[in-house]
Structures are given as C-alpha cells and as structure tokens.
User: Fold TetR family transcriptional regulator from Amycolatopsis vastitatis.
Amino acid sequence: MEAQAAATTARGKRTRDAIVDAAAQLMYVHGVAGTSVDKVLAASGAGKSQMYHYFKNKEQLVAAVIDRYLERILANQPAIFELSSWADFDTWTEQILDIHRRPGGPVACPLGNLAGELGDNPTIAPLVDRAYRTWESYLERGLTILRDKGELAPDADPARLAQAAMTSVQGGLLLAHVRHDITALEDALRIALTHLHSFRP
Assistant:
C-alpha cells in the first residue's frame, strides 16, 4: 500500500513511469529474457531501492510493461474508442496502417513479441491475453452497436467477429514486420473488413 501511495505523488509517478518506459523499450528490442533489472535501472536512472519499491519482482514489472504496450497501441488507433458505424471501422484500419507506413515500419506488435516469447509462461501469458481481450473489447462494442442499429445481422456474434478481426490484425502485423512489406497488413485488414461486412443484413 505504501508503494502504491508513493506512486501517486508526482515525483513517484515520474520515477515509476521512467522505470516502466525503460523496461518497455528494452524488452521490445531484447525480449524479456534479455532485459535484466540492472539494464532497466541504468536506462531509467532509477535506483534499485526505487525499483523494488514499485515492483516486488520482474514479473510485476513485465505486467506493467504489458499495460504500457496496450496503452500505446490503443493511443495509435483512437478511432477504436468511437466505433459506431462502418465508416468508423474503415478509419480504424487506416489508423493502423498509418503507423506502419512511417519510417522504420512496418514494426512488430509489442504484444505479439511477448506472446511469442512468453506464450507458455503460466503467469505472463494470461496477462498478454487480457491485453488482447481489452483491445478486442472495443471492436466487440462497436460491432454490438452496429447490431443494435440493425446494421449487423441479429444473429452475428460481436465477440467472435472481434476475435476474428484481431486474428487478421496480428497475422498481418507479423508477416509485414518480418517481410518489411506492408502489403501483408493491408491484405489482412482488407480480409478482416470483408469478413465483418459479410454479416451485414
């Protein structure tokens, strides 16, 4: 409780954020296994006592990094928060593509990286899945709105459709990054939208 209270102060929040941001960057590049606490401390400028003030162990730090990754992912696709029309879904996919058209792209999905490295870890894997489900939940909400408006078939399952869309997004991101070619992501998103549109009444 004391650590949580300290983190709510401006200085405490800055310190905690610095640690999480440094860990997020290092884990993105080197993986969790390749990121030691000492490397995080050196990159963040924090002391070991501060580190363990906020995180009891490395797994807690990884959990915070997962939350940070999700926060950044969603911030790069703000249309996902306001999905209420088919045009909004088009905007959402374009926002994803815009990120990967920038110099250095297509980039790997940080959650995908963690899933590949820690997908069998009984402690971390559920946290990655929770992040994906949160991401999916905004798609599900938008599809539910469309169904309620009569713009999606009444027997359509928004949760299942959201999962299918996420599957396309993740597959497209993976191949686009590995091949350094955004067409894989463009095609995956087009397939996702076509699948969703197939459930229009």
Q: What stands out?
A: The CA atoms of residues 38 and 148 lie 52 Å apart. The two ends are 52 Å apart (CA to CA).
